[in-house]
Specification:
The protein is an alpha/beta fold. 38% of the residues lie in helices and 20% in strands.
């Protein structure tokens, strides 16, 4: 992580949690960082949230969205949030096991959900709520679940049968479940930041990857991958999270308005 970027973010984060009287009528700034393109489901939801947050708070809150790893990369953003350098993220659910909340790895189990209806029974029910509450022990507040989609497999050879994966170096997220899944079919899992995947595919560092179609397309991975297998083998979703200290410092009415903005952006 660049020291200058982090220091700048820390200063901005410190200003964002100052008492309102100290910053007069200046809006509360929320830096919202994410690692995918603006025209993905998450990117569009983040922009819609920024719009609704401004409208519902009547300008009291200004959300600045930084897409496509322009502010922080995969490996940096969680630390930046915990330090207060950014105020909001929407990391994939696989990111929470390395923080010690391993229960989130259930979402990485292959073929766990047949469709969105089954998925939303979990994310919108007591199980989903309980999982988000576990994040508070890590200084985070879980605000919403955002869907991306079910994953497909890509490579430079057809992947039609389990034996086709043997020896293939497949990029995965930092998930022990995904690691075991790839090893079970003879593939060689490679944990790698999302922003590094295109170049790794282009140079042959990895042979293939798994992603929802929107990520494949917006990151132009189709330029460096010849084949896609529509496996729908697993779900990729996100949890919108914020720094707990920052959240607790917000006025109650503003928190309520931001929660409403998240409900609307989740449906959007």
């Amino acid at each position: 992580m660049k020291v200058s970027t982090l220091l700048f973010g820390l200063v901005a984060g410190a200003l964002s949690v100052m008492p309102l009287g100290a910053i007069a009528q200046q809006p509360i700034v929320i830096k919202f960082s994410h690692v995918v393109a603006a025209d993905t489901p998450k990117g569009k939801a983040a922009e819609f949230f920024a719009k609704r947050a401004a409208e519902l708070t009547k300008g009291k809150v200004k959300v600045e969205v930084y897409a496509n790893s322009t502010l922080y990369k995969d490996k940096e953003e969680m630390e930046a949030l915990q330090l207060g350098a950014v105020q909001m993220l929407a990391p994939s659910l696989a990111k929470f096991a390395p923080l010690g909340v391993k229960e989130f790895e259930l979402f990485d189990l292959p073929y766990l959900f047949d469709d969105y209806k089954e998925l939303h029974v979990v994310t919108e029910g007591p199980v989903g709520k309980a999982l988000l509450q576990k994040l508070e022990t890590r200084g985070l507040v879980g605000l919403a679940y955002w869907d991306n989609g079910f994953k497909v497999m890509s490579a430079n050879k057809p992947l039609k049968m389990p034996e086709d994966y043997k020896g293939q170096k497949m990029r995965i997220q930092s998930s022990n479940v995904l690691d075991a899944q790839m090893r079970a079919v003879g593939a060689i899992p490679q944990k790698m930041a999302f922003s590094e995947v295109y170049q790794a595919l282009q140079t042959g560092v990895v042979d293939g990857t798994e992603n929802p179609p929107s990520n494949l397309y917006t990151q132009k991975m189709h330029e460096v991958q010849k084949h896609v297998s529509v496996t729908n083998d697993g779900y990729l979703g996100y949890a919108v999270i914020t720094n707990k200290k920052f959240w607790d410092c917000l006025p109650a009415d503003v928190r309520g308005q931001l929660e409403q903005a998240h409900k609307e952006s989740t449906k959007y």
